[in-house]
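Issue: copy button drops trailing tokens. Both records pasted manually instead:
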Amino acid sequence: MSSIAVITGGAGGIGRAIAAKLAESHSHVVLVDIDEVRTKTAVDELNRDRGSDNNKFSMAICDVTNPDSVAAMAQQVLSLGAVRTLVNNAGATRVDSLHDMTPEAWRRETALNLDAAFLCFHAFEDALKESKGCVVNIASVNGLSVFGNPAYSAAKAGLIHLTHLIAVEYGQYGIRANAVAPGTVRTPVWERRVRENPRIFENTMEWYPLKRAIEPEDVANAVAFLASPQAAAITGIRLNEYKFVNLTLTDIKFIDEDGRQVVTVMYQFAQFDILKLKAERFTRKY
């Protein structure tokens, strides 16, 4: 019996790594992307790496923000067999601040980072019911706190909630839904940022317990686990990497000031910015 994995944003670094990993547990993997040239290159290279098993991967060109395009893609994929795993990985961001955000950019980014996942799930809903399959949504730590990229962050927060909605509503059909929310992943997207700040990885890693960036393969391993029988009883969860922003209580003092009890709280605050990091201490009185 066929067992197909579908990965949106399949031509990118994370998408390719997920595809390579899921090929170990699925009979066929479909890379879905809007960029035909990059997707064909990815599929050709992945198939070549498989050696004699060189028909493991195929591609479907699709604008995942367009319902008609998604419906056509789903029809193409379903002609190959039973879909067991859907990975909503497509995503991108361009605008760093809310001040610079335009209505058009907001709609564009939320469409790609949130609406697309809904459209793809809707298109494969019946197939996933039949296979008692799973959905893995690639979110971000941006969906958990404020790190800039406002539309992207709001959409990723929505994607995490969509994951919970699918898990709760579709668990009765045997469908599982989980999310992976990585932080800094070493992909080509970061090349521009490295050019602007060659020390960005070194500076950013200060705030990570493991002191290293995430590799695409790390994300792929998490996805593979959530899509595996070992996670058969797991649904509605979010695997996230250590957050950049922490507000840590470091000191509390009760002070008698002018006959009033005042609580002075000292915080240690670390804030992540796209191109710089800053840490500061501040005191508040209550």
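Record 2 (pasted manually too):
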Amino acid sequence: MPALMLADAAHDDMARLAKVAPKDETWRVIFLLDGEKAPPAKLDQRVFAVLPRKFPGIVLERTVASACETLRSLEERRRTRHELHDAVSELETLNKIGVALSTERNTDSLLELILTKSREITSCDAGSLYLVEEEPAAGKHLVFRLTQSDSHSVPFRQFTLPIGPGSMAGYAAATGQPLNIKDAYRIRNLPFRHNREFDEKFGYRTKSILVVPMKNQKDEVIGVLQLINAKKHREVKLTSRQVVREEVIPFSKRSQELAASLASQAAVALENNLLYQQIQTLFEGFVKASVKAIEARDPPTSGHSERVAKLTDGLAKAVDRSDSGPYKDVHFTLEELQELKYASLLHDFGKVGVREDVLVKEKKLKPYQLDLIKERFLYMKRGLEAKAYCEKLDYVLRNGNQSYQEFFGQVDVSHSKRFQTLDEFLQHILKANEPTVLPEKTSDKLLEIANWSFEAPSGLSKPLLNTDELKLLSISKGTLDDNEVQQIQSHVIHSFHFLSRIPWTKELENIPEIVRAHHERLNGSGYPYHMKSEQILPQSKMMAIADVFDALTARDRQYKKAVPIAKALDIIGSDVNSQLLDPDLFHLFVDAKIYELTAKD
């Protein structure tokens, strides 16, 4: 409170008066002079007037009144400045909180931030946060999502509350109006009562409560903030009921306004966050649906993209943890890991542009080609049978039945050997038609078969294996000829072109570049761009190892047997030695046992 002092100019000085004046308050002094003594040459600004002691009383009275009016004016100005300073400070705090809320993308972290900042600006001891959720059968209800307390560590247990008058939070959610309760034990004229179970269990005393609904732009309640026990001093812990009596105060009107303002910001931030998550979920669903659509055209590779994503993610995290080697300074943010995950899931997206008969080709020969060869062999056998019958008939016509049995036996033995040879040839063709994991040379037996011929119905001599069939059966690795290999390899270009047309956000803008290089090799022998090591992103190098490993070990490909993990690692190790795949990443893949991530898939 402002003070006005009357002082003797002869005995009192400003230093002495300052000691007895009220601290942190505005004060002024009127000095009284004896006789005709002259006033000091220099006067302190807190000296309102200097009057002779024998001055008329009416003058002194008016001077005191004027001084009091001046003090009231000064005090009002001081209070206004203080309130303005507090308002600016609160506004700055709310702005900082708003920025923090708007940049947080993790929902759980956002909820923690909302409740923490709400408690800070209202200087309260504890608080809870509820979210409105809706289920088709149960409708809307409140879900208890978070609690905080300075004074007690409470185990969290999620539960639901109906929206309605049965509880403070339910009442605020139903009415959309805040509740400011001075004493939770003395609630009157309201349809709910405070549940004292927590207080009795922990020896606590809930007193002042502020409940604020969180509303979105449509004025819909999407959550409720419940703040408990406003305190005189923020740092004090309410360890006993005595401390509660001394420290806890009602929530002020200003605290309610600040909490309401923050709740409004929090509601917008939370809804944006949930919308962001919904968009992410929607996009991820689109990505996975795209993968399923691709794999539907190529059923033997079902699950391949998800396994590659899991392996690549595991390898990237191993790189991030690495504290030695050339990748010790390579680290990935959560956004970059998400980008890599999507790139891995979509790395074969371009297969939509590859002919289906090439995608699903299980053997070197197409089914109709193998059927033609089998028919050819059967026709040749029938021809041999007919020739045998003709030889026997000719013998009988020339020699009668004399010694025919011996001759017939010789013919049967001769043709049986040729039948056996044809059966062996066909079995060799069937074996050669199977894909191989490692390159193999064309067998001499295939060349021998191709040199055999038979007489076609036209009378012309035809080879048992034509040039195209021999070429296909001579494929050294896999099932595809050169033209088909080019078609398969074109899926990388298709992927890059398709993915480049998507307007990616900044966090995902490298997806096309990562995907386009996953079949490149360090020495430039990869495809389709023949990049060298320094041109290939580390993410693409990681995906390359994951892609090769899964292609070798996948158990769901009908056209080849799965290679055991140990052998697959040996094969990849050979590729590393041939400067195809990155040695340091491969060592991390092995040392961190990344290959175990898909062992059960």
